[in-house]
Design brief:
alpha+beta; 5-stranded antiparallel β-sheet; single chain; 4-stranded mixed β-sheet; globular
């Protein structure tokens, strides 16, 4: 049974998104996002396990204002996800698992298209592969010996 629900356990620093019951959880932490899978006989134990795993798999996401710095295609097995930067005010144009990851990462404007497999787990892994291969603009500017303002105006 697929669900998209926010949970607040009073910790304040994390936002938990349940993408698919007993399977996937995402944890937000100021520009970072992680995913984890947990299986158990009890739903609360499965969620707890997935949150612990998500905390260990945190990825820092480079953000340009409210969107991604550049277009990327994330691939995992037969799932492919196209992630495209969008103009301010566009919103998160994404479905299901991709939307949950983008919102948890703090990205407000993005266009996406899920290509290939519609499996939620593989789609989430494809999104994370894409986010992991995004280039950090500050690092690129430093490597080129230029200021970030010179590159982006």
């Amino acid at each position: 049974m697929a669900m998209d629900q926010d949970r607040d356990r009073g910790q304040g620093e994390f936002l938990e998104k349940l993408v698919k019951l007993n399977r996937v959880a995402k944890v937000d932490w100021a520009g970072g996002v992680g995913y984890g899978f947990g299986k158990a006989n009890d739903v609360s134990d499965a969620i707890r396990k997935s949150i612990e795993k998500a905390k260990r798999s945190m990825v820092r996401v480079p953000i340009k204002k409210t969107t991604l710095p550049h277009q990327i295609i994330g691939k995992f097995k037969s799932a492919q996800v196209l992630l495209k930067p969008a103009a301010p005010g566009t919103g998160v144009i994404a479905g299901g698992p991709v939307r949950a990851v983008m919102e948890a990462a703090g990205i407000r404007d993005v266009l996406s298209k899920s290509l290939g497999s519609s499996n939620a787990i593989n789609t989430v892994k494809a999104v994370f592969q894409g986010l992991d291969s995004l280039m950090d603009p500050r690092e690129i500017a430093t490597n080129r010996g230029r200021a970030l303002k010179d590159m982006w105006g």
